[in-house]
User: Which sequence fits this backbone?
């Protein structure tokens, strides 16, 4: 979570037409280049073998080498059978990889740990599909201890029976020792399912998993299901929901966004993590994927423009280039009549932006009122984030 001083230095600024977004914060600068998820260390990976020699050092356990840095961040696991799409999801969502490039990804052989520096620091671990993590010789604590959410990626275009068996075994096993973990099942690769059968397959998988868990004695397991594909916005929507499940202040954010939706006559309001395009909260009205897509594209355009126009270059004393913050005001942008929608964006802090969308054309005088309300909201959100 960014501190107050970071916020005031961020200098991220967007002004309306043409919108620009500026930053003198190096992390934001890198981020805008699609570089804000860091693979913590290639050496700090699990040597994916139960017979690993790695247990010999104090800081290692079954091959996982813990860094101080990694210990304290909420962790999110990506699990599932091999080739189900885990690495593709991680690369598309956090590294801005184009979906078709995932065709060339090699099989993961070690746990890949990605650290996300954003409104909330957390880690995403991509676990190789070929390993049985329930094997007694694994030190489960080192993998599952401290995990906030586990995402099971299930390839819906494959024969999914084995995946369902492995998934339910895993949940039943982990529930005993790690009851705090929340589970999400990504019913993945839905793009390659025939339109006529898509809903049936999604329903079938959901039903089978729920039945199997019930039969195993778990009546209300904390499991959510999301149809996903890296070829549409579904994967961002699903990831947003998973991240939201880790945010304790979510109900407060939702209540605030409900208020702003009503007072500014928005159809929908999102609080976006600017660089991943994950939204950490929205108002509680029903969401449409198309609306999300429009808001997400809007952010992309703003970030791209900022890269081209948003920086006034200065020189440090040592002669190296630095970005110079021109205004300490919050970023804002407003656009009317895009596919029949009006869009409004305001930077909340270094990482977050509020985007509101309404179905009618909005005009300049009305914007003043929206500005006033959103600025009041921004102050409150900053307070909530600071306390978080
Ligand atoms: N059609 C389609 N293909 C996908 C999707 N997501 C991933 N794939 C493809 O699935 C294949 C396997 O993806 P990976 O991300 O390597 O799978 P993985 O689960 O990381 O595999 P392991 O490393 O073996 O555990 C690749 O060819 C991807 O292009 C999707 O949403 N739709």
Assistant:
């Amino acid at each position: 979570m960014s501190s107050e001083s970071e916020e005031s230095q961020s200098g991220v600024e967007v002004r309306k037409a043409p919108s620009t977004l500026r930053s003198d914060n190096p992390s934001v600068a890198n981020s805008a280049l699609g570089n804000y998820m860091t693979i913590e260390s290639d050496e700090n990976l699990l040597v994916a073998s139960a017979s690993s020699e790695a247990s010999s050092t104090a800081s290692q356990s079954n091959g996982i080498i813990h860094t101080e840095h990694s210990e304290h961040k909420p962790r999110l696991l990506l699990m599932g059978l091999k080739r189900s799409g885990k690495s593709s999801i991680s690369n598309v969502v956090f590294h801005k990889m184009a979906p078709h490039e995932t065709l060339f990804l090699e099989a993961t052989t070690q746990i890949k740990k990605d650290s996300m520096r954003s409104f909330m620091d957390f880690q995403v671990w991509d676990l190789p599909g070929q390993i049985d993590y329930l094997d007694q010789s694994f030190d489960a604590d080192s993998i599952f201890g401290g995990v906030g959410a586990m995402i099971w990626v299930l390839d819906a275009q494959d024969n999914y029976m084995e995946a369902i068996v492995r998934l339910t075994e895993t949940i039943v096993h982990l529930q005993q020792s790690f009851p705090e973990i929340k589970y999400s099942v990504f019913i993945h690769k839905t793009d390659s399912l025939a339109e006529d059968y898509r809903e049936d397959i999604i329903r079938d998988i959901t039903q089978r998993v729920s039945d199997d868990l019930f039969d195993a004695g778990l009546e209300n397991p904390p499991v959510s299901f999301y149809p996903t594909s890296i070829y549409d916005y579904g994967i961002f929507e699903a990831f947003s929901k998973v991240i939201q499940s880790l945010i304790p202040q979510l109900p407060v954010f939702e209540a605030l966004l409900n208020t702003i939706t009503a007072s500014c006559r928005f159809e929908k309001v999102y609080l976006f993590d600017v660089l991943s395009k994950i939204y950490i909260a929205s108002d509680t009205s029903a969401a449409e994927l198309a609306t999300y897509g429009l808001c997400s594209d809007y952010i992309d355009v703003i970030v791209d423009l900022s890269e081209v126009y948003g920086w006034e270059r200065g020189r440090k004393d040592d002669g190296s280039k630095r970005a110079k913050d021109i205004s300490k005001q919050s970023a804002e942008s407003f656009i009317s009549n895009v596919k029949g929608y009006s869009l409004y964006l305001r930077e909340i802090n270094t990482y977050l932006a509020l985007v509101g969308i309404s179905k009618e054309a909005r005009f300049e005088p009305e914007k003043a009122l929206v500005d006033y309300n959103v600025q009041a909201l921004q102050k409150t959100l900053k307070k909530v984030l600071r306390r978080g």
